[in-house]
Design brief:
By secondary structure, the chain is of the alpha/beta class. It is 29% helix and 24% strand. The chain has helices at 5-15, 26-30, 45-57, 78-82, 96-102, 166-177, 198-213, 231-242, 294-298, 339-358, 411-430, and strands at residues 37-41, 62-66, 71-73, 92-94, 105-107, 111-115, 120-123, 128-130, 133-136, 140-142, 183-187, 218-222, 251-254, 264-266, 271-273, 278-280, 283-286, 290-292, 308-309, 323-325, 330-331, 366-376, 379-389, 395-397, 403-404. It has a 5-stranded parallel sheet with strand order 5-2-1-9-20, covered by helices on one side. Strands 13-12-11-17 form a 4-stranded parallel sheet, covered by helices on one side. Strands 22, 23, 24 and 25 form a 4-stranded antiparallel sheet that branches. Helix 3 runs parallel beside helix 10 and helix 7 packs parallel to helix 8 (231-242). It starts with a helix and ends with a helix.
Length: 431
């Protein structure tokens, strides 16, 4: 075997796989069955983690990571940039250590097609990559057709900022340029979408910036949902920090029952519209409905929902054998579409890919998700959960394994934990 038993056990723990999976019996079966070609599409928390852990599990497997960009700006942490707590440089990472420390091959190019029958990936530059196993971690795309007056061109002036990078910088600039006394509108997306607590942490971080620099301003959230992730915790923090629920509130939330189901953007007049609400704003952050990225759809990996159905044990596509889909693009309910879930899915997928290449049984996995959010610089909240494979082959929550921050939890400590969590997950993914 390519790695020691001690290292294998350490990796097993890191991947969140149970000791009773039978994986320890893989060592004799794996001996003498080295090699294989794995191509991974997408250098995000899912793709980069999968590349790293496949190589750690078996360095004889050739892993090629295809990513259009030379660096990756993380969506987790991008709200902190808007709140003035970090810079874009702080949340932007290269793939250098995946290459130098783990032997991953990086190809900076766009994928234009996947031939599942021929097991090849076509690139915009003209090359084709062959694979024995393909891991697709493409992230999300937007359903522009579901919002009147909003598309990719309009997003260059009314940012979604739901893919970190230039969009984050654009929104930050608009916040800085806004006059004191202005209104920031956040148009939140319907379920399912990337990072369920994200719009509400964003409102918190923008309010934190406004409180310091433009105290006469406010944030209004139009939400097509009747409830949202960690709602009680967010609203408790908003009351304490931003006067939520009072006539001087810096944050206002308009849910579905009060007309939050927005359907139209008027870019010329800087307004957001639902059937019952017409909201004019100085800055609009419109986050549209979402689906799996375009390459997943063009490769036939999506179903009518716009997302990718996968086998719960291996994350292998239910539509195309030999292709695994991880991260936000996959249907992995009740696992959320989050960076931490993608990291956990990637490790489970790495074990599955290595096992399948070796011709041995795939271990029964468990998954972990932890999500920290900042309401203010010293006010953190969190939710955590452990997941297991159920008897019917689906993913289910482990009863009693998680929960949200309790009423006696130190919010200051949670804020510290949030920053430590971020630093640890990016290290685990990119270093």
């Amino acid at each position: 075997m390519s790695i020691s038993r001690r290292e294998f056990i350490r990796l097993l723990g890191a991947a969140g796989l149970g000791a009773g999976t039978g994986l320890f019996g893989m060592a004799p079966a794996m001996a003498g069955k080295n090699g294989g070609q794995v191509v991974i599409i997408g250098g995000c928390f899912g793709g980069a983690t999968a590349a790293k852990y496949i190589r750690k599990l078996d360095p004889t497997i050739s892993v090629t990571l295809v990513e259009a960009n030379k660096t990756y700006a993380t969506c987790p942490g991008s709200n902190w940039v808007l709140g003035g707590m970090r810079t874009m440089g702080d949340i932007t990472f290269s793939y250098d250590k995946l290459v130098s420390q783990h032997g991953v091959k990086i190809v900076n190019d766009l994928v234009t097609g996947i031939d599942a029958a021929a097991k090849t990936v076509s690139l915009k530059g003209g090359d084709k990559l062959s694979y024995d196993r393909l891991v697709v971690s493409p992230g999300i795309d937007f359903r522009w057709d579901m919002v009147e007056g909003y598309d990719a061109t309009v997003a260059e002036t009314i940012p979604h900022a739901w893919k970190a990078g230039p969009q984050t910088e654009l929104l930050l600039k608009q916040l800085k340029d806004m006059k004191d006394g202005g209104t920031v509108a956040i148009a939140a997306p319907p379920n399912p979408f990337r990072c369920p607590p994200g719009p509400y942490e964003r409102a918190s971080m923008i309010a934190n910036y406004l409180k310091q620099s433009k105290p006469k301003s406010k944030v209004v959230i139009l939400d097509p949902k009747s409830k949202f992730s960690k709602q009680g915790l967010f609203e408790g923090g908003w009351k304490e920090l931003y006067g939520y629920g009072t006539d001087k509130a810096m944050i206002e939330w308009i849910g579905q029952d009060k007309g939050g189901d927005w359907k139209r953007i008027d870019a010329k007049n800087m307004s957001v519209h639902s059937e019952f609400v017409d909201l004019k704003a100085d800055v609009i952050n419109a986050i549209p409905p979402q689906k799996a990225a375009a390459i997943a759809a063009s490769a036939g990996l999506t179903d009518d929902s716009g997302w990718c159905p996968v086998d719960g044990k291996t994350f292998e596509s239910k539509l195309h054998p030999g292709i695994h889909v991880i991260g936000d693009a996959s249907i992995a309910d009740p696992l959320p579409k989050s960076g931490y879930a993608a990291n956990s899915e990637a490790k489970v997928c790495a074990f599955a890919v290595v096992s399948m290449l070796k011709g041995v049984d795939v271990p029964t996995p468990t998954w972990v998700n932890t999500c920290y959010s900042l309401v203010g610089p010293r006010y953190g909240i969190s939710v955590a959960m452990v997941y297991e494979l159920t008897a019917d082959g689906k993913i289910g929550k482990v009863e009693g394994s998680g929960g949200v921050s309790g009423p006696d939890t130190s919010r200051r400590k949670e804020a510290s934990y949030a920053e430590s969590w971020y630093d640890n997950i990016v290290y685990d993914t990119f270093a």
